[in-house]
Amino acid sequence: MFKSVDAVLDRLSMYRLLLYYLIGLVVVAVGLSAVGVLHMSAVDIAGSAIYLSVVCWVLNQGFARFLKLPINSDSTIITALILSLIITPNFSKDGFLFLSAAAGLAIASKYLITYKKQQIFNPAGIAIVLTALGPQQSASWWIGNSTLMPFVLIGGILLVRRIRRGVMVTSFLATALLATTVLALVRNVAVVTALHETIFSSSLLFLACVMFTEPLTSPSTRKHQIWYSILTGVLFPPQIHLGGFYSTPERMLSIGNLYAFMVNPKVKLLPTLMRTEKITQDSMDFVFAPDQKFAYEPGQYMEFTLPHENIDSRGQRRFFTLASSPTEDNLRIGVKFSENGSSFKKAMLAMDKSTPVVAANLGGDFTLPHDASRKLVFIAGGIGITPFRSMIKYLLDKNEQRDIILLYGAATAKDIAYTDVFNEAKKRFGTRVRYILSKAEKLPDERFRGGYIISEVLQAEVADPSNSLFYISGPHIMVVSVEHALRKLGVSRENIKTDFFSGYA
Ligand SMILES: Cc1cc2nc3c(=O)[nH]c(=O)nc-3n(C[C@H](O)[C@H](O)[C@H](O)COP(=O)(O)OP(=O)(O)OC[C@H]3O[C@@H](n4cnc5c(N)ncnc54)[C@H](O)[C@@H]3O)c2cc1C
Questions:
Q1: Please, what sign has the CA dihedral across residues 21, 23, 27, 33?
Q2: DSSP 3-state of 198
Q3: What are the strands, taking DSSP E only, across 346-421?
C-alpha cells in the first residue's frame, strides 16, 4: 500500500503537495464554518486567505523584480496560506492592519533577513514574532483545534512521508510531549489533560508537519535534525519561560531556525549555465559557473529552481546531486530525461546562459566517511551514479587513495556515464569498477557483466562484505532491492548508506 501512496506522492513536488494541503485545510475550515461545525465565519476565513495571498504575491513580485531574483509563486502562496491558518481572520481596522503587517514582514524577511541571499527564518514564523513586538497582537494558531485536527493529521502524514522527514518530526513530537508531561508533573496538573490539550487543541501538529519541516530553515543533516527536534521540542510547552519571555510556537520555531542557521549555514546561488554535455543516451550534464564561492561535501545535493511558463503539477523546483567535486570550479549536475518529460525538464533543455536559475538548500549525508581506511562499495543504478562521480573525482584531485569497489548498473553500455573519471581511478588507485548491464546483447570487455545487481553479483564482486561500508544510489525500487540483498548477506544496517532519487516513476 505504501508503494502506491509513495508513487502518487512522488508525482507531486513537495511544494505543490504542501500548497494543495494548505488549500485543502482552508476549504475544509470554510466548509465546516459554513455548516456551523466550526464556530468561525466562513466568509472571514476565505477573505483572509485571499487577502493574504494577494498581498504576499504582490509584495513578492516587487521584491523579486527589484532584486532581480527569479519569482517563486508557490512558496509565496504557501506563506500566505500558513498565515491565514494561524491568524484569526478579522477584518476590523486593527485586524486588517495585523494581517497586512504579517504579510509584509513575512515576504520582506525572505529577502532582507538573509545570509548569502538565503533566508534564515521561516517567513510566517518570524512575521508573527515581529508583529508581536508592535501593537501587541499575536497569532491565535486557530488551526490547532479538535475539529480540524484529523484533517491536519492526515495531510501532515502524507507531507512528511513525501519529504522523508519522519524521524525529525517524530523526534520533535516525542520531545514536545515528554516536555509537556514533565511540566504537568512538576506543576501538579493532570498529565492526561495536559497531553490531550497539546495534541488536540494546540499548534503542535500543524507546526510539526508544515512549518518545522521547511527545508530552507531546518538543518540538512540527520545529526543536526535530531538536535533541532530536541531543542524545539523542549521549548514547545507554553509554560517554558525566561523571566517574562514566554515560549510561543513562533518564538520556538525562530530559535530552531537560528540553530539550523548556525550549524548548517545555507547559501543561495544564482549560477550561470556554461555548457551542456550529453553523458548517456538519455542523460545530460549541465555545467554552471556559481556566482559565489561556497563549500560542499562530495555527494551532497542542492535544490534547483527554474521558473518557466505552463508549469505542470510537479512544479518548478528539483533536487539534483552535485556531480562535480568541490575541487572543481564549476558546478555540474547530471540529469536524466524521459519521453513524456515534465515541464521542468523541457525548460531545462531550453536553458541558455541568460536563464535565471537558483540553486539552494544544500544538504545530504551521503558523503565519504571520515575514516579513510574504510573499505567502500559504491553501488549505482542509472543516473544514481552522480554522487559517485563527485566523490571519486574529489579523491583523484586530492590524490587520496581509498579502497573502493564501484558497481554501476545500467541498461546498455551506451547508458554508462563518467567513464573518464572511473578509468582514471582504476589506473591511478586500482579502483575496481564493474558495469552491470541489464539489456546488453554483447558485453564489450571484462569490466562488464550481464544482469542486475542482485545477491549473486554482490557475493561475486565484494570479497569482504561484513567489513565494507556500502553506498547505494539510484531509483527507489533499485535502492530498496539492493539494500534487501545486502541485509540478506548479513551486512548490518549501519554499514549501508542510501540515497534515492525520488521522482522517477
Ligand atoms: C536528493 C535527490 C537527489 C537527486 N539527484 C538527481 C540527479 O543527480 N539527477 C537526476 O536526474 N535526478 C535526481 N533526482 C531526481 C530529480 O529531483 C527529479 O525528481 C527527477 O529527475 C524526475 O524529474 P521530473 O519530475 O522533472 O520528471 P521527468 O524526469 O521529466 O520524468 C520522470 C517520470 O515522471 C513522469 N512524468 C513527467 N512529468 C509528469 C507529470 N507532470 N505528471 C506525472 N508524471 C510525470 C515521466 O513520464 C517519467 O516517467 C534527485 C532527487 C533527490 C530527492
A1: positive
A2: helix
A3: 358-363, 375-381, 404-410
Q: Count CB-CB contacts under 10 A for residue 252.
A: 25
d(CA 421, CA 251): 48
Out of 3.40.50.150, 3.40.50.80, 3.40.30.10, 3.90.180.10, the CATH code matching 375-500 is: 3.40.50.80
- Determine the topology of domain 272-363 in CATH: Elongation Factor Tu (Ef-tu); domain 3 (2.40.30)
> What's the rounded Cα separation, in Å, for the pair 505 and 487?
25
169-196: pLDDT as tens digits: 999 999 999 999 999 999 999 999 999 9
12 lines ligand 1 (CB under 6 A): no
Antiparallel, parallel or unpaired: β 432-437 and 118-119: unpaired
Cell numbers linked to 286: 549541465
Cα 35 to middle of ligand 1, angstroms: 42
Instruction: Please state the φ and ψ torsions of residue 275, each to the nearest 5 degrees.
Output: -165, 165
Q: Is residue 334 in contact with ligand 1, taking CB distance under 6 Å?
A: yes
The ranges assigned to domains in the chain are: 2-263, 272-363, 375-500
Ligand 1 centroid to residue 502 C-alpha, Å: 7
Burial status of residue 354 (CB atoms within 10 A of its CB: 0-12, 13-18, 19 or more): exposed
CB of 301 closer than 6 A to ligand 1? Answer: yes
Q: What is the DSSP string of 14-51?
A: HHHHHHHHHHHHHHHHHHHHHTTSSSS-HHHHHHHHHH
SS3 for 450-490 is ECCCCHHHHHHHCCCHHHEEEEEEECHHHHHHHHHHHHHCC
Q: Which pTM value belongs to this model?
A: 0.85
- Residue of the CA atom closest to atom 39 of ligand 1: 342
H or E segment and range at residue 249? helix 249-263
User: pLDDT by residue (tens digit) across 349-385?
Assistant: 999 999 999 999 898 899 999 999 999 999 999 999 9
- For 488, residues 6+ apart whose C-beta sits below 8 A from its C-beta are 455
Tell me, using a 6 A CB cutoff, whether residue 257 lines ligand 1: no
